[in-house]
Every structure is written in structure tokens, then in C-alpha cells.
Amino acid sequence: MVAVGLGRKFSAPYEHTQLEWELNAAQHWGLQNHPEINAVGIVRWHGYSWDHAVRTTFAYGLGASWAFATPEVEELEGKGVRGLVYMLFEITAAPPQTRSWSGFLRIHHRSGVFGLVSDGEGSNFIGLGLRHHF
To answer: CA-based diameter of the chain, in Å?
Structure first.
């Protein structure tokens, strides 16, 4: 899977906490081959005691995902669906003096929320990425 996204911080309600939105588009290949788009709200925590050595953030996001074809790995007895809930779990790391770039490790999860949204299976992908902060 390869993905590209655009996001922005829109609030910082508490010290060391910020709220963000993100839109991303991904292309899958291999076990499944389809494009998808995701819209997600994110809570990000930052300001850790070790930031003098490695600037770090942790994030959780929840939103919606739309696949442009039924993902093969998500089908359960022919019940695969295009629209599911999207969740992300992410950790970022960067040198403390670098403010415009960071690397990240993300779990990209699509889910039917145990039958609440869909009876179809979900999927998980683990990705590494590079982010530029504008």
C-alpha cells in the first residue's frame, strides 16, 4: 500500500494535546488491489520528557473509509463492503532540532466495528512514512 495525505491541526484544547483532521488516499496492491480514501479526526499527544533527545508524538484517529472496489481480504462469506470505519494508531519521531520533518509508524485499520457498521471483515496494515510539516 502507498498513501498520501493532507492534514491540519485545528485545536489545542489542553497542554500537550492537539486535535487534527486528515484526508488521505491509498492504493493497495498484492493481496488486494484497489484505491481508497479516508477522512479522520485525530487526537495527538506531544511534549514528552525525552523530547530533548527524540521529539515524539502519539496519535489516535477515528473516521470513515471508502474503498473504490470491495477489498478481497475484508470479505467474509461474500459480505465485504466498501464503506467502513477507519482507525489509525501512530507514533512519530524526529530529531529535536527538526521542526519541518518527522518519520512515523502507523497502523491503518478498516473495521465493521463488530457488526455495528458491517458484517464484513476489516483489515490492518502497518506503514512507515515521512511527513513534511508546512
So the answer is: 51
